[in-house]
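Researcher: Good morning. I'm working through a list of sequences from a screen, and I'd like to move beyond sequence-only analysis. For each chain I'm collecting a predicted structure so we can compare shapes side by side. This is the next one on the list. No need for commentary yet; just the structure.
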Amino acid sequence: MIEFQHVSFSYEKDRPVIEDLSFRIERGESVGLIGANGAGKSTVMKLLLGLLSGEGKILVDGIEVNRASLSAVRRRLGFVLQNSDNQMFMPTVYEDMIFAPLNYGLSREEAERRVDAVLEQLGLQELKHRHNHRISGGEKRMAAIATILAMEPEVILMDEPSSALDPYNRRLVINTIRALPQTKLITSHDLDMILDTCRRVILLDRGRIVADGPADEILRNKELLEAHRMELPFCLAGR
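Model: Good morning. Structure tokens for this chain:
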């Protein structure tokens, strides 16, 4: 579903942020992209979305990401931002959710059907006509996920989906992510959340893959994590 083929990118000449990066994510996989600050996680997301352009080739569902294909690629991708305030820009949750389907050419009737189906799926019907500035941080994060699902993307990208949430809302978001059938690529410093939601982990350091495999194995490897400026998930630290 996603493929990086020898991808490199530099913001400054001769200082690569991503260097010869190659990996594949199959349809339906849930993959955690982890690494310390500066490892290149955000750059990978931006390259995948076509916000940056580097060397090598990136494919989404067999379509190469380039300027000519951006519209087709982005219709397959849904991106949940770390800060929901940067994503929820309409007055109400309903208006945010229906915006993209209408702009994709759906009739209002079909777009409203999608909105109602997603809200029911997530148990968020009571948020439909709420104003975005009057809902809690956890509700806004869930509404942001609902907005992306209304687009019916094949791949969901998430940047720090559990950040700044209280324990109850964090668990609600985790349970929602686990139930989503789409292909998922999630970046986070919350390794407990990654362990809960992803079966596979890709560990980056200075733009290179240093480990790629089962989440349970990589996230239990204290020596590996500490060698790359990370620590064991809290749930495993005392064992």
